[in-house]
Structures are given as C-alpha cells and as structure tokens.
Fold this sequence. Notes:
The protein is an alpha/beta fold. The protein is built from five helices and five strands, in the order βαβαβαβαβα. It is globular, with a radius of gyration of 13 Å.
Amino acid sequence: xxxxxxxxxxxxxxxxxxxxxxxxxxxxxxxxxxxxxxxxxxxxxxxxxxxxxxxxxxxxxxxxxxxxxxxxxxxxxxxxxxxxxxxxxxxxxxxxxxxxxxxxxxxxxxxxxxxxxx
Length: 118
C-alpha cells in the first residue's frame, strides 16, 4: 500500500518537483499547501502518513508548524525540505520531531530515500 503525502512549500515549482518525484516513487500526494495555516489545516483534515515541509513559508516558519503538530499530537511523519541549511536550524527541526531535513537543491533519489524511511 502506498503512503499518503502532504506537500508543503510556498513555491508552486517546488511543490510540483516534489509531487512528481513522489508519484514516480510510488507515493500518493493527497494534498498541497502553500503556507503554514493551510499546512496545519490540511494536516489535521487529511491525516497524511508523511508531510514534506518547507521551513520558510510566507506566514510561518516550518519549525513553528512542527511545534503545533507536536502539541496537537499529529501522528504524521515530517520531512523538512528547505534552502536553509544552517546546522542550528537543522538541529532544531530534528529536535522538534522531523525525521529528516533535506537541503535544497536535492535529488529525487535523496527525497525518495528519506520518504522511504518514514
């Protein structure tokens, strides 16, 4: 059975790249969000198995979204994907419950490998 994924990124181009790679890898993309508020709403509405989460969104920071997920007991696995690659940011994301942190640009293989572990 393929896992359901919610893709969160403010860039339509990045969402499309991620979605295409996931679909090709056998995953089902059940939703897309372009900002933090939409991401939180869709996460609790759709209850995806996996969420790919950008760290820089127009209205929120990804780590703040992770805090909401944690506080509200969301069981979805989260993989952060961001152009922000500072060690402190990566460490914070992982400490808040993200399973992996992928720095843009990335390969489809790296994305599929991270999602496969989730």
